[in-house]
Amino acid sequence: MFAVLHVSDFSLQAVLRLERELAGRAVALLDDRLRPPVVVACTREAAQAGVEPGQTAPQAMARCATIQLRTPQPAAEEEAKAGLWAAAFSVSPQVEATAPGVCTLQVGGLAGDRREPALAEALGQLERLGLCATAGLAATPLLALYAARAAERCRCIVPGAEAEFLRDLPLATAEPSAPVAAILAGWGVQTLGDLTALAKADVVQRLGPEGMALWERAAGETTRPLKLIAPPDTFAAELELEHEVETLEPLLFVLRRFIDRLALELRNAGQAAGALTLGLMLSDETCYAREFRLPEPTTKEDVLFRVLHTHLETLHTAATICGVRLECRPARPLERQQGLFESELRDPHGFAETLARVSAVVGPQRVGTPVAEDSHRPDAISLAEPPAVVPAGRSGTGAGWRGPPLRRYRPPRPATVELEGAAPVYVWTPAVAGSVNTRRGPWRGSGEWWDAGRRWQRVEWDVELEGGGVYRLLRTTQGWFLEGEYD
Amino acid sequence: MSAPRETLSSLRQLLAERFPVGTTTSAASLATGVPAIDEALGGLPAGAVSEIVCATPSCGGQLLLGALLRAVRRERGRVALVDAGDSFDPQSWPDDWLRHVVWARCPDAATALRATDILARDANFQLVALDLRLADAKELRRTPAPFWYRLQRAVEAGGLVLAVFTPFMTVPSARVRLELNRPHPFAALADPREALAHALAPQVQRQRMNATRAG
Fold first, then answer.
1. Which whole number is the average pLDDT over A10-23?
2. How confident is the model at residue A221 (pLDDT cuts 50, 70, 90)?
3. Which end of chain B, N or C, is surrounded by fewer C-beta atoms within 10 Å?
4. Torsions phi, psi of A194, nearest 5?
5. Considering only CA atoms, which of A147, A167, A149 is closest in space to residue A157?
6. Does the residue A390 lie in any domain?
7. Domain shared by A313 and A445, yes or no
8. Are B111 and A361 a contacting pair at CB < 8 A?
9. Closest to B94 in 3D by CA, of A229, A124, A486, A371
10. Which of A383, A394, A485 is nearest residue B58 as measured by Cβ atoms?
11. Cβ of A367 and B105 within 8 Å?
12. B13 to chain A, minimum CA–CA distance in Å?
């Protein structure tokens, strides 16, 4: 058994699916290789206004003042073709790219009762990719194609019902050449049934080999082996934009289409996206590239889209965008078992997105899990990426710690200090001032003396001021500072 | 001002005891490990905003923050610490207490509030601690009240604990407001930290009841 996925007016649909503002509008596709260019396809809205294939642009505009005229876009067609292939591979691994907008599938390996649901699912996927398609299921590739073309959505020709199905189809379905079609019209042959009612030998005698091939096509007798294509081994999408993009919306619309298709391809391959690489080609001939590592491999379209959306919301490019490329690095879907006392994230992708959004607010390198550096230098800390899994806590870790912790002023507040001998007796800063009631110190520290750029030396005092409050007072070569409050 | 506030608080408690069906505290809460809080309130309420007013210097606000970090670590949760004054000192804590912490170092209060608005909506966190103690007082007073109610709505949905450390009463939507107003003496520098945290005795300034929703 064979199935066919058919996207009618493929070139037009390829353009429409990448331009959100064209949805529900009168649009016509002009073949600009002809002089003058003529309409080759149009939307239902344009057809309702009287636009027909074969009209020139002025004729189309005369019938519909609001019509949008477009020309075929090879890049958009490539992208649509990739989407169609992805949907086809989700049904069967044996796929033939028969023609633009037509894929033929060998579905003999699929159980009989699963064929139509699988095709319906593929049609749904194509719809999500912005392509309106139909499907046909029959014993030969040709019959399946006829069924797909005649279907409103999905049509199955059961064995034995072929003749009945073919009988009323118009002769044009079998694609006769123009001279043969004119001859047959003269004979009064209008349907495939009319043609096959004639004896095959008589038709061959009068119309030659072309007549024989046409008669066999009309009888549904033609069969052939499929020229199979291989599924993609890279997961990338690229598009040169027809109009340069200045705002976020159109770019996101295109990226959503990319993601829907790439996620489907990854699922077909039993893979998930481990990382995304976004490339934006700018009109000043520069390129912006950014890689996003995902916390967990996934094929969820919404998650992948949110990663890009969150980043692009805060991105400002120096020039308009004229092309976009997105690549997914495949990875095996995550399979792991946690330790009993380890805590993992409830929503890893939501967590990554939250961190990205907070990072956009507070600044890069300002969000993370604090990690003490291997140094005696005071305040030597760095921020690490929060772990996906927090290991179980160790017991008794806080037992040896004494006194209230320090709340550090960054930078330390310059202070004016009165001394009695070497000991501070009065401290003044714009925020805190007072006599020193009790003190402890000095605590001397120094380090990295071998590096002139990083050398440090300090003297610390712990002081309690008369108004209440215990502080750390600091003297460096630059003077006195209030370094923090014990709180 | 404090006497009427205390009267109001005790009146609310009395009503809650007399009419337990009409009003009840939220069942979920985060035990802080500080007896004075856990015995009075059962911990900080989940799905609500708690305000901790640190009215004097060295009053133990950071000790309480440490107790919260430890409590969440014990419960194997995650903490977002939004630090408006960039004053948290990781070197003052054991490394193991900080492995579940996401620290957002903010330059000012406005940035900290925006970051909190994002973090409070993430279900991965059990506690979001917002430290506004070093924030500019004028800036804090300019924060519109609807913002705090929006935060309250956000945490209600996620069921996390939002603890806001402030230098003065700031959060109108706080379900619980505690005030720390006794500075630690100098001698406390030699005391075991666990004992200091254990001895914290914040005053309960407000304890709003969570109305039971029918159905």
1. 89
2. confident
3. C
4. -60, -40
5. A147
6. no
7. no
8. yes
9. A371
10. A485
11. yes
12. 31
* Residues A98, A9 share a domain: yes
Strands B48-54 and B161-166: parallel
Question: Residue A208 is inside which H or E element, if any?
Answer: helix A200-219
Q: Is A264 part of a structural domain of the chain? A: yes
A8 burial type by CB count under 10 A (0-12 exposed, 13-18 middle, 19+ buried): middle
A335 Cα to chain B: minimum distance (Å): 20
Report the CATH number at residue B119: 3.40.50.300
> What's the pLDDT score for residue B26?
47
- Shared domain check, A101 and A9: yes
Cβ-nearest to A398 among B78, B94, B190: B94
Residue A483, judged by CB atoms within 10 A of its CB (0-12, 13-18, 19+), counts as buried
- A243 and A122 together in one domain: no
Q: Domain check: are A7 and A105 in the same one?
A: yes
A167, pLDDT greater than 90: no
Please report, for the domain that includes residue A79, its CATH number. 3.30.70.270
Q: Does B102 touch chain A (CB under 8 A)?
A: yes
| pLDDT of A42 | 93
On whether the CB atoms of residues A435 and A356 are closer than 8 A, the answer is no
Domain CATH number, residue A261: 3.30.1490.100
Which chain B residues have a beta carbon less than 8 Å from that of A387?
A: 99
Q: How far is residue A183's CA from residue A175's CA, in Å, rounded to a whole number? A: 14
Query: Measured between alpha carbons, how far is A239 from A325 in angstroms, rounded to an integer?
Result: 6
- Tell whether the model's pLDDT for residue A484 goes beyond 60: yes
Instruction: Return phi, psi of residue A415, to 5°.
Output: -130, 150
- Residue A289 located in a structural domain: yes
Contact assignment for A487 to B74 by CB distance below 8 Å:
no
Q: Are A46 and A165 in contact (CB under 8 A)?
A: no
Question: Which tokens sit at A307?
Answer: 């990663």
- Into how many domains does chain B fold? 1
The last residue of one of the domains, among A94, A124, A159, is: A159
Quote the number of domains for chain A. Answer: 3
What pLDDT does B19 receive? 62
A390 and B186 in contact by Cβ < 8 A? no
Residue A160 token pair: 């034995």
Indicate the range of A342-351, A370-379, A389-398, A420-429 predicted with least confidence: A342-351
Residues with Cβ within 8 Å of A59's Cβ and at least 6 positions away in sequence, in order, are none
Domain of A149 in residue numbering reads as: 2-19+73-159
Tokens at residue B29, please?
A: 């809460």
pLDDT on residue A469: 92
Q: Which domain holds residue B110?
A: 2-211
